[in-house]
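Lab notebook, bench 4. The sequencing result for the construct came back, and we need a structural model before the next group meeting so we can plan mutations. Quick request posted to the team channel:

Model the 3D structure of this chain.
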Amino acid sequence: MSVVGWTNIGELCTADPTLGEGQLGIVRDAALVAVDGRVAWIGLAAEFPDVDIAHDMGGAAVLPGFVDAHMHPVFAGDRAAEFDARMTGTPYSAGGIRTTVAATRAASEEQLAANAARLAAEALRQGTTTLEAKSGYGLTVEDERRSLVAAGTVTDETTFLGAHVVPAEYADRPDDYVDLVCGAMLDACAPHARWADVFIERGAFDVDQARRILEAAKVRGLGLRAHANQLTQGAGVRLAVEMGAASVDHCTHLGDDDIEALASSGTVATLVPGAEFSTRSTYAPARRLLDAGVTVAIASDCNPGSSYTTSMPLMVALAVREMGLSPAEAVWAATAGGAASLQRDDVGVIAPGRRADIIGLGAPSHVHLAYRPGVPLVSRVWRAAASV
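Done. Here's the predicted structure in token form:
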């Protein structure tokens, strides 16, 4: 039995409001203990028991590891030229995805896995201890299958996104591509995925096509997710809610009926402020969602086109500065909110029985994540109580 402890924690943000102050369940002058990788005790530093390994946090803030519930780390190449053009006036559209598709198809499975590992390691250094990884840059049966195999080398939270866009070879017959996704592609990919996703948007898939794809995925036992209402206001969010999706992501352009549908459902709204930042787009109405009682997560949307970052601390800062969240709301959305998006009850919160995924900040408070944007404040990371 391994007993690991952390003491002299100035501010322990548990993300469980039943354990301490406010939404983050803050315990001050705190300590905690993990047994065999899971949290076993939370209390005051003055009551810290004997442990096998003790970490003195020196008054620093401690948080749950970030849960990044929307990433696209399996790809080849980059789109720096597209970003450069966008910064000088070319508007963003979903069509740029096809540039990455060509590079991904040309890469080996080993190259795809290596790039995913590089990005996962980069995210871990910044405090992301749980991440979701989508396919979606292969768009053939074999390229989607091997993309999911590569994704599975970095996470168990793998998502089939064969319905990212219609590939060029099917441009004149999109329904034939939907047939492929619903048939042979899902047959090959479902064994390697936990989730299925679809991009419901102008330039991608309409509501009828998306419904077919989500229904086919559900029959194969996959959980459902959706990209929706990123570029335009449409019926994608309401479809995701109707289908019982765990999460609907982006949610940039919402009407009152969309927000009402989310508020009356168990579907999490996963917001991706990095995409709005990188495309100079309108930010999602996070304040309206929270005020309506919607469960909100924030994620990086790491991808080579519209949000090439793995930094969850940056997402926290953007959510506070640009979306109107308080620092506590943003941290909760990046931890417990991400766990809710992935329907996980073992991560995202520091509480007895949860996996001891813990990050220490080089700062006395969680507020510094937004107060000092761009500064590498995550100083130490533990996953299941093991230093990484």
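Residues 247 and 268 are 5 Å apart (CA to CA).
Will bring this to the meeting.
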